[in-house]
Structures are given as structure tokens and as C-alpha cells.
Design brief:
The protein has 18 helices and 36 strands. By secondary structure, the protein is an alpha/beta fold. The radius of gyration is 28 Å and the shape is globular.
């Protein structure tokens, strides 16, 4: 049966009729072009030895998806098992797969031929399929049924995820591999609720190979749909409390695996929700008060939330607040959401209750506990462990057991053996597992029960992680399967390379387009978009180019028939410019009366998404070769003779230095206005940086490798992939507060650890974390010194003579403004923590300015003054308004594109050796709490 499912799915993946190939081994027909953390933590401990051998080459039926009702009693073979006999079950689990379909890194070492042993390649769908086959067969061989599960973040991490917006490639792969149940991660919402709905609606496949709604149950126990906005209605239409074939999203899921009745809950944790800026208008667990409501109008300063057991309801209660950093208020709400669902599953006779948890643990704490031989229940900073303990306590008061097993995600932790959470005075225990990230491992945990009602026992010998790497034997996979999946992936690669990214009327602006109907850049305003414009509005020509004829551009010489000053043209004078020189395929350029180009007669070329990426800020363009699959996907943009590995937890790394240097250097290089007021400081966080750069077999760095470093996000305006760079100004006090977040919360939650370009920061871990109510006595940042204006990355050695901040001396120039660049993601988080962007004159954005009354927020339509935080809150965040725009193309400058240009243009040959040197050099630990080995101290 699994082989048939695979064949059907491959048809869906490639969008072609491959059933004949799956059925009789015929050659697949020619392909048409296919369509296109949080915290990131390093794996906690060393890999487990080689996975067990004995690949059968065919997936067993033990984990086959049950099409019956959620509480179906028959086992998978259709019989009613004897509940009195001894029981066992094996869970095979992955999490945070992040669109890593190919082995890595670098991916080109695994394409088009599979990498051989010794190459260092890890992951890859083919290897995962083969290892799942092996592990299923071994479990079935000892009479143990198998459940295959994922704990979220299927999406976002490689070029392959670009296809999720038009087809749910990652859900299709999960279907292909036979997953039985899944939950949502925060990155499933990076493209917004509607995009997730589209992926769920196209990631399944029917018996004819047609894409359709995902049939894998997706359990989301603590989700809340908006009672005011329609922007999550498509996703809500795929939800029902019990779930069915048309509603993959559900509150809980019950399924029999042989004689074991398992109930599943699915959770998105507080940290995961906090770092998901584009989930709006969705919410997850928030505490509510007793005020009933039918809309948020009844909840001044807050929102109306439906109940957890009916999250699409039209009535509910007011949230206490919407501040997701208020852990003490909202964590009990997540406990209650979980406990109520667990109680329901226990009442329905479930033998086991399992949480698919995108909540996470704290790697540093777990490693410390393991090193000290302390039990997992001693944890005080790991959200999953705290949740398990709180649920057990809440239910134990009524004699109900809590969770038996947590299969975790979000923190990317590789737990080589299960953690055991015990409870005083109880024989019940909760087991906790997690399998790293990116498909580098398949976890397995086997539980046994001697007789009904007794406690489930951990089979430790059969509970560990299995590496998925170049040693994984794929010889048992059928040649048809291998050929078909290669064909399917090649079709997707060809589509990304050749299909135009821009589609007329989709309300998105991709390169080649400057606008699309009523969708206009810069909110339709000339000022800030068209060079020299002081006012006026733009419109859109039929060829999807900007009409700037109504922009007011004070140019005294305009109309004299000569191109001078800032003019593009003047009458019939064009200074040699033509449609061709302006980047168009042909046509005739004209001139507006305000001396700007009239490009309505030019013929645009709408490039593919990979043509856009590879050619960004380059000339002449490299066009797709339709005869060569992967020519752009794996286009060489640089080379290296050393690795730049993943960032260590909560510490400076060469990788984050490279990322922040690229943002500062390329923004200053490509944006003309930076010549007079350049970016002085660029910051980013470990949570945004997803993968290292590795030499591999050839040392070649491809576009796909650099995208994997910074793959996250989407523009909320253009809807194009990747986080936009934003630039704004901050006062010294605001920069220090932001850095305090990095060395305070970032010291325990790696997602928030900040890296910096353009400054050197001293911090003291022995001091108390910054408290805005006691700024004089708290705070770890001791000194901040900017690099001089003559010091360019990566040679940031020359520092200014006077510190921007010194804890002893204070702020020598508190009114100074510093030009800052960061990603949209970080800017949104900063805004959430009260740091409001300023303009070049020091005025805070009216979208988030300090306020005491509603009239002070009039600068942005729809902005209101939040009486609790005394901040303006606007429909469009200030971070979005501060996007960095390329003036010649009206397109956003993306952080991953800045990295690509930096590697491609700044290093003629191997990447600069500066990024192989010892760290830290910029984030410098000082004081008694610094590690004695000097791992956090700067080399001065």
C-alpha cells in the first residue's frame, strides 16, 4: 500500500501523470516547468552510532493512515485487538524539518548524484525514507506497532519552501513518507495564515494523483481564530474540533495502533508564538478574564478570544492583555488549554496521551542537568518540562494522569536519549524526546505496558536517535521510487528556475513588476520612493511599471530640454537612456513633464525567482538555461576553503558577524542616500540564522547554500520571500536597551542572542538582567563603542575614541542619533519590546511613538494610543514602514540578498579569512561570571 501512496504523491509533486511510471516502471514523460526557531540551537550532544541495518525497501502498513473516524476502534488490520494482552508501541519522530529535501551541506554535493560515505552530507528525503522503512520493519518484526509523527516546522529553510505558496511541497513530502499525525510550528505561519491554508489545501493527493487537502491529521490544541478579522478565514475553514477528511486541522486526534489507543494533542508554545510576527490575526494560548464578548470592541485595549475547545466560535472572553512577553499571565492559559484536552482524551479511554509539542526546551539547562546527573524535573527554564509538570499538577488534583509522552520541537535539540520527568508521590512519568532539526535524525522511542492500567515503561535500548547521513543505506529503495522523486524534485527546480515569479493581478510585487494594479509600493506615495520627490502619488501602468508622472519633484531646470541635476530625462533628451539600458526587453521610453521616465511603452522581462536571486545587483544577468536543471539553483556565487559553522548557543560567531557585516556593507553600497548618512550599526539574532556555510567536497558556495543561512520570512507588503532589511535611527539609550535584550534574555534563550557589526560591546553576566523599572541598578551592558567611519567590514578594528555608552560615565552624547540596519523580523521584535524607530531628525515613528492620548497617534491612519503601554499602536507596524527600498527597482532589499552580494562581490576568490578567526571579537564578556576558558572574552 505504501508504494501506491508514494506513486500517487509523486504525481502530485511533479504536477504530471506519473502513475504509469509508478505502476509499470515506464519512463516518466517529459516534465513541464513546475511551480515554485524560535530559536536555532546546535544539536545538544554527539550523534548516536549508525542506524540499524536491514532496509526492506518497502514501507510497512503498520503506520498507514486510518481513514476512519478519529476515535475508530478497529486496529490497522481491521480487527478488534485484545486490550488485556501486553502492549507496546514505537513512535518514530522528526521535528523542524524546514524544507530540507536534499542532503546538505552543501546541497550541490548531493546533486544530481547522492553523496557517498565520507562526504559529510546529512539529511535528505531519500535517506529519511530508507531509514523509516528500516525502522518500521524492525519494529513490526518484534510485534510493535509504529506511529510516525512530526512536531512542526515542516516549512521554511531552503529554496524548496518557495513552492509552498503554490503547492504544499513539504506536506506532500510528509504524505509520501507516511506520517500519521503532525502539529504546526511557528514557521508554518511565516507566509501568513492564508498561505498555510493554501499549503494544507494542496499538500495532499487523491487516488488519481491530483493535489488536494492534506489527509494527515494536523493537531493544534491551543489555536484561536480571530473573531474580528477575515484574514484567517481560509485557515479556519480547514479546522473542526473533531476533524475529518476536509478538515485536517483539529483539536485532538485519537487513533488505535494495534491494541494501543493513542490520543494526541498539538501545541505551539509561548516562545514559539512570540517569535511568529506574521501569525496575525491568529492567536494561541492567552489568559482571559470573565468579560464575555462577541468582538474585540467589547474589550478595550485587548481582544476577544474564542474558547480553546471551540476556537472558531463567535463568542468568547476578553484577553487579559495581548502582551506575549507576559509569561506569568499567559503560561497558565497554555497549561489549562493542554490539561482540558488531556482530560477529554483520558475520558475517551486513551491508553496513551501524547503531545506533539512545538514548545521546546532550553539546551543549556538540559545539558547542565545531564552533566550534573540531575533529573529533568529539576528544570526551571525549559518550557516543555514546565508545561508537563503544570499539567500533571492540574489534573492530578482530580485523579487524572497528565501527559505520557512529549515529542518536542522548536528548540532544535538533539536528545540522544529520552528525558524522564517524574512527579513526587506518583508512579506516573512523562517521557520527553526531540530529534534535532533539518531531518538529520529520526528519533525512536518504544514504550511497553505489562497489563492494562499499569504504567508505561521506557525501553531504553530501543529509544534513541538514528542519524540520517551519507552512511544511510538507500539501496533497498526501488529504482522507480528514486527515479520518480528525482523527476519530481527536478520539475520543481526547473519551475523555480524558469517560471516567471510575477503574475498579473495576484496583488504581489515581484521583480520585473514595479506595481500590480492597485498594489503599489510605498503605500502609493512618491516621497521616499521616487528620488527627489517631495509629495504626490504614483499609479500603475498596464505593463506593471510605476507611473511617477504625478510626483512633485522640485527641479528648477526641468523643461529646459537638457538632462541635468537629478532629472531622468527632459523632453526629448534622455542622455542615452532607452528601455534596453533601463533593463527592459524592448520598447520605447518616453519622458513625463516632471522629468521622470515614462516606461509605459517598455516591455518588461519577468524573471523567475531564481533568476531574481542569482542576478541581484549584478550585471550582465545570468539567464536560465532550460537544458540544464540546477544551473541557477546551484549557481556558484563564491567559494571557501574553511567552514563557517552554525552559531554556538548564546555567543558570538563568525557566521553572525558575516551576516551583520553583509547587511551594513551592502546597504551602504546599494542605497545612494547612505552616502551622506551611512549605516553605522547592523544587528541580527541567532534565531534568524538557520545554517552554516561549509566547504564540502569542492569549496563552492551556491545560491542555495546562502539562502539556507537566511531563509525565513516574507514581506508583508510585497509578499516576496525573505525578511526585508529595514533602516532607521535610534538614540544611544535605545541601542543599549536592545543589546540588553541580547545579553539578558539571549543568554538563556539563544533565539534572542544578538550579533553586531560596527561596534564592540562589553557585557557582565554577573550583573542582574536589565529591568526598565530599575535602569540605574540593573543591566549587563557595560560599554558600547562604535567603529570609526573609516572602518569597513570585515576589518572592524578601528574604534571611536569616545564610547557611545559607558556604565561608569553614562551616555557622553545622549542626543546622538545612530543609523541602524536590521531585519524586519528583529525590528518587529524590538518594536514589541518598546523600541520605536526614529527618522533622521530623531522623531519617533507615529506608528509606535510614546503617547498619552489618542491625538498624539494621528500620524498613521488607524493608530491608537495603548493606555497600558503608553505607545501608539498602528495597523501597519513602524518596522514595516521603515523598509529599505532599492530606488531603481522600487523593490525591497532582503537580508539574504545582501549576504549573497557580499559574498559574491567583496571576495574575489575564497571568502575572507577574517571569518575563520577566533571569536568573540565584538560581543565581549567581562567580569567574574565569564567562563575561565576565555570562550566569551575578546582577544584584545
Amino acid at each position: 500500500m505504501r508504494g501506491i501512496q508514494r506513486c500517487f504523491l509523486l504525481t502530485s509533486l511533479s504536477g504530471l501523470a506519473l502513475l504509469a511510471a509508478c505502476g509499470d516502471g515506464a519512463e516518466p514523460p517529459d516534465a513541464g516547468a513546475g511551480g515554485a526557531d524560535s530559536g536555532v540551537h546546535p544539536d545538544a550532544v554527539t550523534p548516536h552510532p549508525d542506524a540499524m541495518a536491514g532496509d526492506t525497501g518497502a514501507l510497512s502498513d503498520a503506520g498507514a493512515m486510518d481513514a476512519t473516524a478519529p476515535d475508530a476502534e478497529p486496529a490497522l488490520d481491521g480487527t478488534i485487538p485484545d486490550a488485556a494482552e501486553p502492549r507496546s508501541i514505537m513512535f518514530l519522530h522528526t521535528n523542524d524539518e524546514h524544507s530540507h529535501e536534499l542532503g546538505f551541506a552543501p546541497e550541490i554535493d548531493d546533486y544530481p548524484d547522492r553523496a557517498q560515505p565520507g562526504s559529510g552530507i546529512v539529511g535528505g528525503v531519500k535517506r529519511r525514507a530508507a531509514l523509516l522503512d528500516t525502522l518500521r520493519a524492525q519494529a513490526v518484526g518484534i510485534g510493535t506497532p509504529v506511529a510516525v509523527v512530526s512536531s512542526g516546522d515542516q516549512m521554511m529553510g531552503s529554496f524548496f519552501h518557495l513552492a509552498n505558496q503554490s503547492r504544499g511541497i513539504d506536506y506532500a513530502v510528509a504524505t509520501l513518507l507516511g506520517y500519521d499525525v503532525m502539529t504546526l510550528g511557528n514557521h508554518e505561519l511565516d507566509f501568513g495564515a492564508d498561505a498555510l491554508a493554501g499549503a494544507l489545501s494542496t499538500g495532499g493527493v487523491d487516488m488519481f494523483g491530483t493535489p488536494g487537502i492534506v489527509q494527515i491529521p494536523v493537531v493544534t490544541t491551543n489555536i484561536r481564530f480571530s473573531m474580528d478579522s477575515t484574514n484567517d478565514d481560509l485557515l479556519a475553514s480547514l479546522y473542526s474540533v473533531a476533524g475529518d477528511a476536509e478538515h485536517p486541522l483539529r483539536r485532538t486526534f485519537i487513533r488505535r495502533f494495534s491494541n494501543v489507543k493513542v490520543g494526541f494533542v498539538g501545541l505551539l508554545g509561548q516562545d514559539a508564538a512570540l517569535v511568529t510576527p506574521f501569525k496575525a490575526p491568529l492567536r494561541f494560548s492567552l489568559a482571559t478574564n470573565t468579560t464575555t464578548c462577541a468582538s474585540s470592541a467589547a474589550c478595550p485595549g485587548s481582544i476577544c478570544l474564542p474558547p480553546a475547545n471551540d476556537p472558531t466560535s463567535t463568542s468568547g472572553h476578553c484577553a487579559v492583555n495581548t502582551d506575549e512577553t507576559d509569561v506569568s499571565t499567559h503560561f497558565p492559559a497554555m497549561v489549562q488549554d493542554t490539561a482540558s484536552a488531556v482530560a477529554e482524551l483520558r475520558a475517551q479511554g486513551c491508553d496513551l496521551v501524547v503531545a506533539l509539542s512545538h514548545v521546546g526546551v532550553n539546551d543549556r539547562e538540559i545539558n547542565t542537568l545531564l552533566a550534573m546527573g540531575l533529573p529533568a524535573n529539576s528544570a526551571t527554564a525549559s518550557e516543555e518540562i514546565l508545561l508537563a509538570k503544570a499539567v500533571e499538577q492540574a489534573l492530578g488534583q482530580n485523579g487524572v494522569r497528565g501527559l505520557d509522552l512529549i515529542i518536542g520541537g522548536h528548540s532544535h535539540t538533539a536528545l540522544m536519549s529520552p528525558l524522564v520527568i517524574t512527579y513526587p508521590g506518583s508512579s506516573h512519568a512523562t517521557y520527553l524526546v526531540q530529534a534535532g532539526s533539518y531531518g538529520r535524525y529520526i528519533g525512536q522511542i518504544r514504550l511497553t505496558q505489562a497489563d492494562p492500567g499499569s504504567e508505561w515503561t521506557l525501553d531504553l535500548a530501543a529509544s534513541h536517535l538514528n542519524p540520517v547521513d551519507d552512511r544511510t543505506d538507500v539501496s533497498g529503495l526501488s529504482s522507480i521510487f528514486l527515479m520518480s522523486i528525482d523527476f519530481a524534485f527536478n520539475a520543481l527546480i526547473n519551475g523555480l528556475e524558469s517560471n516567471p515569479a510575477a503574475v498579473a493581478g495576484d496583488e504581489l510585487i515581484f521583480p520585473g513588476e514595479q506595481c500590480d494594479g492597485t498594489t503599489l509600493p510605498n503605500r502609493g506615495l512618491c516621497a521616499g520612493l521616487v528620488p527627489g520627490a517631495t509629495s504626490g502619488v504614483i499609479s500603475c501602468f498596464a505593463n506593471r511599471q510605476v507611473d511617477a508622472s504625478h510626483c512633485v519633484i522640485p527641479q528648477a531646470s526641468c523643461g529646459n530640454g537638457a538632462v541635468d541635476g537629478a532629472e531622468n530625462c527632459d523632453g526629448t533628451a534622455f542622455a542615452g537612456a532607452s528601455c534596453s539600458s533601463l533593463g527592459y526587453s524592448g520598447g520605447t521610453v518616453a519622458c513625463h513633464a516632471n522629468c521622470t521616465y515614462n516606461t509605459s511603452g517598455c516591455t518588461p522581462r519577468f524573471p523567475s525567482i531564481l533568476e531574481i536571486i542569482v542576478n541581484f545587483a549584478a550585471s550582465p544577468p545570468v539567464l536560465d538555461d532550460p537544458t540544464t536543471t540546477g544551473d541557477l539553483f546551484f549557481a556558484r556565487v563564491g567559494r571557501t576553503n574553511f567552514d563557517i559553522p552554525d552559531a554556538p548557543s548564546s555567543n558570538e560567531s563568525n557566521l553572525i558577524n558575516l551576516v551583520t557585516d553583509s547587511a551594513r556593507a551592502i546597504t551602504n553600497q546599494l542605497i545612494p542616500r547612505m552616502e551622506t548618512d551611512p549605516i553605522r550599526v547592523a544587528i541580527n539574532a541567532n534565531g534568524v540564522i538557520r545554517d552554516g556555510i561549509y566547504r564540502g567536497q569542492t569549496g563552492q558556495i551556491s545560491a542555495s547554500d546562502l539562502f539556507r543561512v537566511l531563509p525565513l520570512g516574507v514581506s508583508p507588503v510585497e509578499r516576496t520571500p525573505g525578511y526585508t532589511l529595514v533602516d532607521f535611527w535610534l538614540a544611544p539609550q535605545e541601542i543599549v536597551v536592545g543589546l540588553e535584550l541580547g545579553v539578558g534574555q539571549g543568554a538563556t534563550s539563544d533565539s534572542f542572542w544578538l550579533g553586531i557589526s560596527g561596534a564592540q560591546v562589553d557585557y557582565d553576566l554577573s550583573r542582574p538582567v536589565f529591568d526598565p523599572l530599575s535602569p540605574a541598578t540593573t543591566g549587563r551592558v557595560m560599554r558600547v563603542v562604535l567603529t570609526s567611519t573609516t572602518s569597513r567590514p570585515p576589518e572592524d578594528q578601528v574604534l571611536e575614541n569616545t564610547a557611545l555608552f559607558d556604565r561608569t560615565l553614562g551616555f557622553p552624547n545622549p542626543s546622538r542619533l545612530v543609523h541602524v540596519s536590521t531585519s524586519l523580523y528583529i525590528a518587529l521584535l524590538m518594536e514589541g519590546f518598546g523600541i520605536c524607530p526614529r527618522d533622521a531628525t530623531g522623531v519617533q515613528s507615529p506608528a509606535c511613538a510614546v503617547c498619552t492620548g489618542p491625538t498624539e497617534c494621528a500620524g498613521v491612519t488607524g493608530s491608537v494610543c495603548d493606555p497600558n503601554r503608553h505607545r501608539c499602536v498602528a495597523p501597519v507596524p513602524a518596522a514595516v514602514l521603515a523598509r529599505t527600498i532599492m530606488p531603481t527597482t522600487f523593490a525591497e532589499l532582503k537580508e539574504f540578498l545582501a549576504l549573497l552580494v557580499y559574498v559574491r562581490d567583496y571576495f574575489d576568490g575564497p571568502i575572507d579569512q577574517e571569518y575563520s578567526g577566533p571569536v568573540p571579537r565584538r560581543m565581549c564578556c567581562v567580569g567574574a561570571a565569564c567562563p575561565a576558558d576565555g570562550s566569551r572574552s575578546c582577544r584584545r
